Amino acid sequence: MNAHTLAAALPTAADQPTDAAAIHAAALLLLPHIERGERIDAAVLRTAMETAFGASDTAGAWDWKDAYDACEAATVLMLRKYGKALLRKAGSPAAAVPLFGKIAGLLPTHTRRSEEAQAFQQFSTPIPLGLAAITAAAITPADRVLEPSAGTGLLAILAEIAGGTLVLNELAETRAALISSLFPAIPVTRFDAAQIDDHLDPATVPTIVVMNPPFSVLANVEGRVADAAYRHLASALARLADGGRLVAITGANFGPDIPAWRDAFVRLQERGRVVFTAAVHGSVYAKHGTTVETRLTVIDKIPADEPSAFPASPGTAPDIATLMTWIAEHVPPRLAVAPAVQVMPT
């Protein structure tokens, strides 16, 4: 289906599509541009959004946060179509970083933020950083992979490519509907991820958690919450199967080597051992509208022999290539997981 045919098939304003359906429709219009290696500039993006929504942003039909979500949804579609082939061509995840970087480079920088994006700290994962997180997770087809704050699916699609069976949760209404349309075979729950262990079905026991939680906000709580990331991580770790692995992207100031968080990580290590942590330079996130430094932390679900002892951090990775090297050098092999909670390959 070409762009003109697709545009004709899209809902008109009179049909009043849901925001998620229109965002998905815009993503389908953007996908051919990405496939051709064309940059998505403001004019291309505006045309796709106006076609999908049947009206302009000035008319209040959509905002630029919706437009950025459409770009990310198009990236999900692109990776589903070509991701495995790109990884095969590269030969390794580390060698694929430049290829994934080229895809990310085609998308516009997030320069306009909506109130919802600010309130929920909806900074989606740049796909090169997501590739690093998925590499650290070492996902196999036997894994059930939980993403507690699934956003637009940029981490989820990488976990899918790696062969994992997905368990997706997203609190924000439009994003939850969007990710449901992008992953139609997977039920998407809408729980507060800071309490994910309290709400998921008891039978849902992931062997992997990959997460990029809000750094300092909680649902239904006004203002900044200093321990927001800790609450998200602790609840996800509680739900993780024994022997499973949790990989978290957080703010750089949330780590065991940060004095303010040392005691919290000592408590975490009573249940799960930190095996790797490294800060990541803020430039990695620049395309997504922030230059805040982040951190990649890997925790294996086994009590630490000495909860107050942590692995030395290699420092702050200046780029994803360096981070991938550190992951290869410092992240240990996975632990064995109880067979009862593994997903048997079909």
Automatic annotation (TrEMBL):
GO terms for biological process: methylation. SUPFAM superfamilies: S-adenosyl-L-methionine-dependent methyltransferases (SSF53335). The lineage of its organism: Bacteria, Pseudomonadati, Pseudomonadota, Alphaproteobacteria, Hyphomicrobiales. The keyword Transferase applies. GO terms for molecular function: methyltransferase activity. Keywords: Methyltransferase, Transferase. InterPro entries: SAM-dependent_MTases_sf. The keyword Mitochondrion does not apply. This is Methylase. It comes from Candidatus Afipia apatlaquensis.
